[in-house]
Amino acid sequence: MENKSSALQSVTQHLVASYREIFDLATPTARMPMHQVDLFIDQAMQRHYKVALFFNHESSPFVGHIIRTLGKNRFLVKAYHSNVFRVMTSTSVNFIKRFD
Q1: DSSP 8-state symbol, 90
Q2: What are phi and psi for residue 66, nearest 5 degrees?
Q3: pLDDT digits (tens, 9 = 90+) for 67-84
């Protein structure tokens, strides 16, 4: 029974790594400068881009659309193809990129 579960975990980990590589969802190692994050957040909101947001201390990106501004440096983000919303601050974002 242990061999089956470890084999399943191995296959699962390999599958997740393959999807990250295919869809280019690998976590970036560098942090974007804050002025660049702010600029791209503004552009993504105005042009309705689908973006991948890499947050501090989170391994997987949050993919969705930046809906509106909630105040100074606070934004409402809606996940792509779901009804999940998240309030984010520009300082909580390590890296942001357009997701096509």
Answers
A1: G
A2: -85, 115
A3: 999 988 899 999 998 899
